[in-house]
Design a protein that fits this description.
Structural class of chain A: mainly alpha
Low-confidence stretches of chain A: 1-7
Strand content of chain A: 5-15%
Mean pLDDT of chain A: 87
Radius of gyration of chain B: 18 Å
Distance between the termini of chain B: 50 Å
Family (chain A): Belongs to the complex I 49 kDa subunit family.
Catalytic activity (chain A): a quinone + NADH + 5 H(+)(in) = a quinol + NAD(+) + 4 H(+)(out)
Order of helices and strands of chain B: HEEHEEEEHE
Helix content of chain A: 40-55%
Strand order of the largest sheet of chain A: 1-2-3
Subcellular location (chain A): Cell membrane
Largest interface: A-B, 40 and 37 residues
InterPro entries (chain A): NADH_Q_OxRdtase_suD (IPR001135), NADH_UbQ_OxRdtase_49kDa_CS (IPR014029), NDH1_su_D/H (IPR022885), NiFe-Hase_large (IPR029014)
Order of helices and strands of chain A: HEEEHHHHHHHHHHHHHEEEHHHH
Largest sheet of chain B: 5 strands, mixed
Strand content of chain B: 25-35%
Number of strands of chain B: 7
Mean pLDDT of chain B: 86
Protein name (chain A): NADH-quinone oxidoreductase subunit D
Shape of chain A: globular
Largest sheet of chain A: 3 strands, antiparallel
Oligomer: heterodimer
Number of helices of chain B: 3
Helix content of chain B: 10-25%
Low-confidence stretches of chain B: none
Strand order of the largest sheet of chain B: 1-2-5-4-3
Number of helices of chain A: 18
Radius of gyration of chain A: 25 Å
């Protein structure tokens, strides 16, 4: 009998049962993060691994906690908008608008239709940017860098549209209580039209490269799956919940800012795995484009902000010429205007899910209590359950597809 | 989708827990809020979860709040419930004294309450009895106070450019 045959014989060979001594089965502790390039943000996961299989994960969050809720208790309402920018910085306009709508609810300001439509356009652009980031980087994490380069320039282009409206790119501080700070400029309209005309081609190119790609499918299907029941119990919202098969979308269930005027569909998945999350986000981008198209086609004429002199900054020319305007300008900038007593909860469909603002006002110039319901914070706690039993590379892809944003999580 | 009115929720709660168990009934922009006693909170959430019509099976948020003036019930916990089937929201509030801020955990019913309760513990020092891992979450572990309580001012007390009097407040 030759030596080769002896090795291939399954009955002859190494005994696989654990032994004492140097061969004992041992669990490995692996520290993933806090600053690991694959986690896209500052998250620490202490993984317990059996060979290449994850047995348990212990999460540490809070590395970039900036005490937003505490700071908000000392700031006039309009200064809190800049804090919301820094939560989910991939889709800052949605956070801004959500906060503005919360305060408008408290103050009872009616926003004109045109401002609502501009808000919808900006929010959907933000959703596009958010999903472009999440999906293209998910592709990068599975090894497909090219697709990322095709769509990422459109995220850059969306930032140019933001710049047209508010002057900023990432932390936008867009809009004011009562509407927008300025109307859509001709350049902005031109750019939005260009985006509507040309992004579909790039998106199609990206999809044709990734969606039916064998490697991508093998890397993402049945990876990091969560059932609809568990997802609801874990408080999932947004694309991650819809990927599990629950069609909860704040935009359609509790329409705000005239979302009831638009015709769009809510894509849902079936398995709640990484592939489904990817596809749901992909389809949501198409729906966002549809909504923007409808909003541009039916953009109402009229004022782009409400007549709310106590809260809406007067035009600068007026401030220099008109005494009332100067008084209001000063009072608003100094945060001297008291808000009514009340308790308000308002939520919008953020890039990652239901972004809620629970505001308690005691009638002062600042909120008494402001609680942000950050979707990322709430669903990230399911991460250990989702990756248990999978490999390290699957965990990276799962985390990437959940779109956990450190800024939102840690406030 | 059935239409569930806020009155129906109140009646269901009063029928189960008695008239005295819920008070502070108010409505804010269509959202019903009720206040209850600490001992009722877990049975109440279970009751609402299993109710065949109401089905409050989604815990949107849970947060602490501090009212230093309200003696004996300084700290509060607000449960934001959402019945996705009926699209009705409900806030349930409970208040506990700051000397003994003990609240039973609801992690047995909602897995999502885990981090929400840790956050409320971290910022307000509310102790959730029975919580599987009640440690700080966003702040550093060796912090020895609960920063969202109202006695901790945000501004540096040594600054003289932000005195309220100077601004006529």
């Amino acid at each position: 009998m030759s030596e080769v045959a002896l090795v291939n014989n399954p009955n002859v060979g190494l005994d696989k049962t654990p032994k004492s001594g140097p061969y004992v089965n041992e669990l490995t502790t692996l520290n993933l993060g806090p600053t690991h390039p694959a986690t896209h943000g500052i998250f620490q996961n202490i993984l317990t691994m059996d060979g290449e299989t994850i047995v348990d994960a212990e999460q540490t969050v809070g590395y970039i906690h900036r005490a937003f809720e505490k700071i908000a208790e000392r700031r006039p309402f309009y200064q809190i908008t800049t804090l919301t920018d820094r939560m989910n910085y991939c889709s800052a306009p949605i956070n801004n608008m959500g906060w503005h709508m919360t305060v408008e609810k408290l103050l009872g300001i009616e926003v004109p239709k045109r401002a609502q439509y501009i808000r919808v356009i900006m929010m959907e652009l933000a959703r596009l940017a958010d999903h472009i980031i999440c999906n293209s980087i998910l592709a990068v994490d599975t090894g497909a860098l090219t697709g990322f380069l095709y769509v990422y320039q459109w995220r850059e282009f969306i930032y140019e549209i933001y710049e047209e409206l508010c002057g900023a790119r990432l932390t936008t501080n867009m809009g004011r209580f009562g509407g927008m700070e300025r109307d859509l400029s001709p350049v902005a309209i031109e750019k939005i039209k260009k985006l509507l005309a040309e992004l579909p081609a790039a998106l199609k190119e990206f999809e044709s490269m990734v969606v039916r790609n064998r490697i991508f499918m093998d890397r993402t299907q049945n990876v990091g799956a969560i059932s609809a029941e568990r997802a609801l119990n874990y408080g999932f919202t947004g694309p991650n919940l819809r990927a599990a098969g629950v069609d909860y979308d704040v935009r359609s269930l509790n329409p705000y800012s005239s979302y009831e005027d638009f015709d769009f569909e809510i894509p849902v998945g079936t398995k709640g795995d990484t592939y489904d999350r990817f596809l749901v986000r992909e389809e949501e981008m198409w729906q966002s484009l549809r909504i923007i198209q409808q909003a541009m086609d039916n953009l109402p004429t009229g004022p782009y902000h409400a007549d709310a002199p106590h809260y809406y900054l007067p035009p600068k020319q007026e401030v220099y010429r008109n005494m009332e305007a100067l008084i209001y300008h000063f009072k608003i900038v100094m945060g001297e205007i008291d808000a009514p007593v009340g308790e308000v909860y308002h939520s919008v469909e953020g890039g990652n899910g239901e972004l809620g603002f629970y505001l308690v006002s005691d009638g002062g110039r600042t909120p008494y209590r402001l609680k942000f319901r950050r979707p990322g914070y709430i669903y990230y706690q399911a991460f250990p359950e989702m990756i248990k039993g999978s490999t390290l590379s699957d965990a990276i892809v799962t985390m990437s597809s959940m779109n956990v944003i450190a800024g939102e999580l840690d406030t | 989708m059935e239409n569930v009115s806020n009155q129906q929720i109140i009646e269901a709660l009063q029928g189960q827990f008695g008239e005295e168990a819920i008070y502070g009934i108010a409505e804010s922009h269509g959202i019903l809020q009720v206040t209850t006693e600490v001992e009722h909170i877990v049975p109440m959430l279970h009751f609402l979860y299993q109710h065949p019509v109401l089905k409050f099976q989604f815990l949107t948020d849970l947060g602490g709040i501090h009212f230093p003036e309200a003696k004996g019930q300084e700290l509060g916990v607000i449960y934001h419930l959402h019945s996705l089937e009926n699209n009705v929201r409900l806030w349930i509030k409970i208040y506990v004294p700051i000397e003994k801020p003990e609240v039973p955990t609801v992690t047995g019913l909602f897995a999502t309450a885990n981090w929400m309760e840790r956050e409320a513990f971290d910022f307000y020092g509310i102790i959730f009895e029975g919580h599987p891992n009640l440690i700080r979450i966003l702040n550093v572990e060796d912090m020895d106070y609960h920063p969202m309580r109202k006695e901790y001012p945000l501004e540096d007390a040594t600054r003289h450019d932000k005195i309220d009097e100077l601004f006529g407040r």
